[in-house]
Amino acid sequence: MKVILMGYMGSGKSTIGLQLAKILDVEFMDLDVYIEAKETKTIQELFKSKGEIYFRKKESSYLKELLNTNESSVIALGGGTPCYGTNLQLILKTDNAKSVYLKLSIPSLVKRLELEKSKRPLISHLKTQEELTEFIGKHLFERSPYYSQANEIIIADEKSVDDIVEAIILKLF
After folding, report:
1. Multiple choice CATH, 2-103+147-172, 3.30.390.50, 2.60.40.10, 3.30.460.10, 3.40.50.300
2. Does residue 126 contact residue 135 with C-beta atoms inside 8 Å?
3. What is the pTM of this model?
């Protein structure tokens, strides 16, 4: 089985994915890291040098690669992955895949992302907490219809990594 973690940036997909994969004794794949390794460029460099359309096409192609392997794994998607092209349909139609939306409130995301703005190109230009809150709110409004189609939704506000991992295991197994 493949467990596909989706959610907004800062929702903990990579952190939760690593822990979940360790407990399930399967491979962990972060789609963004996979893309960077295959393309030998950072996501930021790909956007800058080849553009978003190129990136989104590659993202879809590499997602298919990961979903088509026979090995069980935990895959953390990029925040926008389920919202582009046919990625969400591909995930939902993959027989041995279960998708999980790690859902956090806007205040929780703001609290987490404020600390890592410099590492996140999408929000690094935002100067105030108010701008960050507005940006996340608009983005979540656009992306929630996609995220909400996941097989399972885990409310992750105020929960520890262990609690979230346990909730995923209880819902999926």
Report:
1. 3.40.50.300
2. yes
3. 0.94
